[in-house]
Design brief:
Layout lengths: L5 H23 L1 E8 L2 E8 L2 H6 L11 E11 L2 E2 L8 E6 L5 E7 L7 E2 L4 E8 L2 H4 L8 E2 L9
Parallel strand pairs: 2-3
Antiparallel strand pairs: 1-2, 1-9, 3-8, 4-7, 5-6, 5-8
Length: 153
């Protein structure tokens, strides 16, 4: 008969719990999609579930130069974003159903200030702070490829 040391069982339990946590996080974000804005390409993780939108980029320590997160909302509305438990400064572009940028806001880490869409938005695209400004991207510009994003669930 095989006997397991009590600490080995505890270690195994931690491994299983860690794997389950990673699976939950992986399920929160959909497969990334490519978006194009004013000649710039973005590799955007997509979050289309309430759990994914709630977690967003919390606890991330960095974001790639042209990487971002696309939030897909279940209804068009004047959505708001905040930075609770978010470690890196971000810019957010609120986007309408057709892919037009409504407004862009700069957000500070750990802030609970709510930044709102200037009009009815279907999406929000978070990028590193200053990403849109540095590329002269502004309200009224179109984001191509956004139609490939899954519908909110």
């Amino acid at each position: 008969m095989f006997k397991c040391h009590p600490s080995a069982g505890t270690s195994l339990l931690w491994v299983v719990l860690a794997f389950a946590a990673l699976q939950t996080f992986a399920q929160a974000a959909e497969k990334p999609i490519a978006l194009a804005i004013g000649g710039h390409v973005v590799n955007a993780e997509v979050v289309a579930t309430p759990e994914g939108r709630e977690r967003g980029l919390m606890f991330r320590e960095k974001l790639g130069k042209n990487d971002g997160m696309l939030f897909v909302f279940d209804q068009v509305g004047y959505h708001g974003m905040w930075m609770r438990n978010t470690l890196i400064p971000l810019s957010v572009a609120f986007v309408d159903e057709k892919g037009k940028i409504l407004n862009i806001a700069e957000m500070l880490p750990h802030s609970e200030v709510t930044h709102r869409a200037a009009g009815p938005a279907r999406y929000a695209l978070e990028m590193n702070a200053g990403w849109f400004r540095k590329r002269n991207l502004e309200s009224g510009m179109a984001i191509k490829g956004i139609e490939k994003a899954p519908r909110a669930r």
